[in-house]
Design brief:
heterodimer, A: mainly alpha, disordered N terminus, B: alpha+beta, Rossmann fold, 5-stranded antiparallel beta sheet, 18 strands, binds adenosine-5'-diphosphate, binds magnesium ion
């Protein structure tokens, strides 16, 4: 008999003998990616659920996605632009410069926040049904991506208001959006898995986000970092992400150099570590949650 | 594997690691600072997700299933029977792939759907309609399949009028109906069901059981766990009895299995057999004593004091809760009270370790008569340790004066007899 491991093949009419499952210690791992693909519909439904719930009261839902970046932008513009008198290079309006950096920052922080709590928050499902647990963090991140699109639209409005148009470089924006997602999901997966067993990991997330804001060029430009320190500074993957966003959106007005490359290494490393740890521990999630 | 075998289980075992003498580290900080192995060893153990090893070998292996083997034929309906903690849910979780076995092998021939809970994933903010799609997908139905059966599901649930209302406005009965309606329309070749008939009213339970009978009548394989023996008898023709994780009576004729089960259950259900034990994946509890320590009867003090002594052990962070159900002599459920109703037990996170607690019954509320007080215990909002109706019970006599008049000592009409204040304005 051909061996096709499956339990819930969606939509298929019962064909005796077609679904043959073997359950053994350690076996889940061997069909990991195929299984994940098989559960794509559950992924879509969970993402749909989170989005619907978020925007159910559409005024509060959409409003929140708009107000948060707007308020932060106003604070930064007033404090750094007016009071501290930081320069904004190349005649780019300071507001736009800050906003272009805030977009990836909020994307990163909301992905990290939501995805890292997603597994511990799905205890009811995890202990009662089988599905690849990786679905939880990724389904949760769809909400952050939609919030992000709303903020992006807001930036477009601001650009019109300031009569500032980006150039061809904007075509590369998707690359940096992907980079922001990757930078967030690596640590998020690691924290999501750790959170299942050690509930105090949830306290680390706000700390990372708080600290991250100080070392990322959101309210300042990387130009203020002395040359000698750039390579250390560049270890923070968000530097590459944020400067990349500026490069795309501000007609190349950004501080990009080879020194951002270590940050890309950090992204790859965290992604590998996060996925590996998540995959290794996920089959015991139901036992400890 | 022979093609008319639906499920074949060989030497299946499952170990849970549970705490030994010390509390398990459920925070990372505890895991790191706990005494025991060297720091490096701890980190290595943590990387494997093994918190117990990290605090230095102070864990115990607990065999929730030990060397279980059986074969279920295609189209057979099997009742899985056993006391609380026998390993029934663990077996079903392994068959549903929710948790991995530690040893052994299962081979399943056919499309499986498992129903370990009614309404998994239901979201309060979503409407009934949206929840049907959500829950259906969670149970493994495709969108096309749900769409095709949608009207049937709604009709079965009987909540047509409220289908576009958020389920947070539903009564708990309506929720259960809707959730069960979705589950009842699963069409797997093998259906695995755990204790779900315990919810819902009797009428609806009957309807569900009927639906499940149809399912097994169509030649589908059913694997069914229930405390409700008459439901098991109606649905299943064969059974298997588990006891302490092992097969006590091998899979065979249901009648024999039930006979052995009932013979073994007797001593525990008659009278109070201390220590009374309760156990689930969130913790365990032993009740050493449950008694009335001070009965005020007709004297002037206003309370009868009940005392509960025992030992509670959390397995996870969920607090363990102890309480009582009070029933009138007619069997009417008068009230339920849990220790976490009092701030003191909220602060202490339920009961833990050796405990000795007291409850005073408000006599200025209760009518004269005799009452049955039954102990219950749960892992807070997660699952019963001592389910309602199964724990030790006491009889409480209330014989009080309703006012200063010595003449009215009979029971008042009505279920309760609170002492209210009357004012002359
Ligand atoms: N995740 C878990 N962690 C630790 N112990 C568990 C876990 N799940 C179940 N157990 C223990 O395994 C035993 C069998 O539990 P279970 O399969 O739920 O029994 P049943 O369903 O027959 O009442 C019980 O003693 C229970 O406490
Ligand atoms: Mg059970």
């Amino acid at each position: 008999m051909p061996e096709s491991t499956s339990t819930l093949e969606n939509g298929a009419k019962p064909h005796p003998g077609r679904h043959f499952t073997i359950i053994e210690p350690g076996r889940t791992a061997s069909n990991y990616w195929r299984d994940l693909w098989r559960f794509r519909e559950l992924f879509l439904v969970l993402a749909w659920r989170d989005v619907t719930v978020r925007y159910k009261q559409s005024i509060i839902g959409v409003g929140w996605a708009l107000i948060r970046p707007l308020l932060t932008m106003v604070v930064f513009t007033v404090i750094f632009g007016r009071i501290a008198g930081l320069p904004s290079p190349g005649g780019v309006p300071y507001t736009i410069m800050v906003f272009a950096a805030m977009l990836p920052w909020f994307l990163f922080s909301s992905l990290l926040g939501d995805a890292s709590g997603s597994v511990a928050g799905a205890g009811g499902m995890i202990s009662k049904i089988y599905y690849p647990r990786l679905i939880n963090p990724f389904a949760k991140s769809i909400v952050s991506l939609i919030d992000f699109s709303i903020s992006l639209a807001l930036l477009a409005v601001l650009m019109v208001a300031y009569a500032f148009a980006p150039d061809w470089r904007v075509l590369f924006l998707p690359v940096f959006i992907l980079l922001a997602v990757a930078a967030a999901m690596g640590p998020a997966l690691l924290l999501a898995a750790l959170n299942v067993r050690y509930r105090d990991f949830r306290f680390i997330v706000p700390f990372i986000i708080q600290f991250g804001l100080y070392v990322s060029p959101v309210g300042f430009s990387s130009a203020v970092v002395p040359e000698a320190w750039r390579w250390v500074y560049g270890l923070n993957p968000l530097v590459a992400v944020i400067e990349g966003f500026r490069w795309c959106l501000l007609r190349g007005e950004a501080q990009l150099g080879l020194w951002v490359l270590p940050g890309l290494g950090v992204v790859a490393l965290m992604m590998w570590a996060g996925l590996a740890y998540f995959k290794r521990t996920e089959r015991t999630f139901a036992d400890v949650i | 594997m022979n093609s008319d075998v639906a499920i074949s289980v060989e030497n299946l075992s499952k170990v849970y690691r549970i705490m030994g003498a010390t509390k398990p580290p459920d925070t990372f900080r505890d895991a790191l600072v706990g005494a025991g192995a060297s720091f490096g060893k701890k980190l290595a153990a943590l990387a494997k997700g093994d918190a117990y090893a990290a605090i230095g070998g102070d864990m115990e292996d607990f065999w929730a299933l030990k060397d279980v083997s059986f074969e279920v034929k295609r189209g057979e309906a099997v009742g899985v029977i056993g006391r609380n903690g026998a390993g029934k849910s663990t077996l079903l979780k392994i068959l549903s792939r929710i948790t991995e076995p530690t040893e052994g092998r299962v081979r399943i021939n056919g499309r499986v759907a498992s129903l370990l809970e009614v309404g998994t994933g239901f979201h309060d903010e979503l409407t009934g309609r949206e929840n049907i799609f959500l829950n259906g997908a969670i149970l493994g139905m495709s969108r096309a399949e749900i769409r095709a059966k949608f009207d049937e599901i709604v009709a079965f649930s009987g909540v047509e009028k409220f289908i576009d209302t958020p389920v947070k406005r539903y009564s708990s009965g309506m929720r259960v109906r809707l959730a069960f309606a979705v589950a009842a329309h699963l069409e797997p070749e093998i259906l695995i069901v755990d204790e779900v008939l315990a919810v819902g009213d009797a009428e609806f339970q009957k309807k569900c059981l009927g639906k499940m009978q149809d399912v097994s009548g169509e030649g589908r394989t059913v694997f069914f766990v229930s405390h409700n023996l008459s439901a098991v008898k109606r649905l299943c023709s064969s059974g298997i009895l588990l006891s302490n994780g092992a097969v006590r009576v091998p899979l065979g004729h249901l009648g024999n299995v039930i006979d052995v089960y009932q013979a073994e259950m007797k001593p525990a259900s008659e009278g109070n057999d201390f220590p009374y034990l309760g156990d689930n994946e969130f913790g365990s509890i032993e009740i050493w004593c449950f008694e009335i320590v001070r009965s005020s009867n007709s004297d002037s003090s206003d309370a009868d004091i009940l005392q509960i002594k025992g030992l509670a052990k959390r397995k996870k962070s969920t607090p363990i809760n102890v309480g009582v159900d009070v029933f009138t002599a007619d069997g009417e459920h008068l009230l339920r009270s849990m220790c976490t109703d009092s701030q003191e037990f909220i602060d202490s996170n339920g009961v833990e370790g050796d405990f000795h607690i007291k409850l005073s019954m408000p006599l200025n509320l209760i009518n004269n008569g005799s009452y049955k007080v039954r102990l219950i215990s749960s892992a807070h909002q997660a699952g019963w340790l001592i389910p309602p109706g199964e724990g030790p019970a006491l009889t409480l006599w209330v014989d009080r004066l309703f006012n200063v008049s010595p003449y009215w000592t009979r029971a008042r009409p009505g279920l309760i007899a609170p002492q209210l204040s009357w004012l002359d304005s």
